[in-house]
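Two folds, back to back.
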Amino acid sequence: MADKTFLRRTPGNMVLYDAHEDGKEVVGYQQDITDVVELTQSLAKTDDHWKEGMKRDWVHVAMIPDVVVVQMLTEDKVNFYAKHDSKRVLQLLDTKYAYLKTVNKKLATR
């Protein structure tokens, strides 16, 4: 890819950029999610996170970086924020994006 021109940084630290490739203008995005993945995998190693959440009647089951929200929209055709897509989001979290889950539980129901 050719040189990238910085467009803006989102609050979640995702970088949007503009580039020219093969005579076409390309708008892309990238984000380092290494820390998020390490944290989610650490929390998912034991059931402690699940048990503590259940005691409070609320469990934080995944951490979804901005870049993954965009990836779901562009690659999977799923709007993370749309209520009608919530079942599909949970299915994707159980399969393609399981590395973002903080628990070792199945999220989607049939």
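---
second:
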Amino acid sequence: MSDNHRNRFTLIRWQSLGIEQFLSDEQSGESPIPGKSDNVSLTELLDLIDQKYTMLRRKLLHRMIYQFSGETTWEILDESEKFDLLEQVVAHCY
């Protein structure tokens, strides 16, 4: 089986069986990633997932602010005002 085919198969298996299969493969050392020999700990994985969803949440809030304020108003704001507005909304969401 070629590396590309094996990697695609592994990805499909992870997508269908979920995080448990990924962690099981990591613990057994069956990493499908060429040259990868170290394992990912559960803590590291959860931290990466948290970072991913934090970025997605901020991106969604950014789009919501843009839609709410309107394109014209949004374009008038400078970058620091946009950043401050996003930070205010993020602070109220947590």
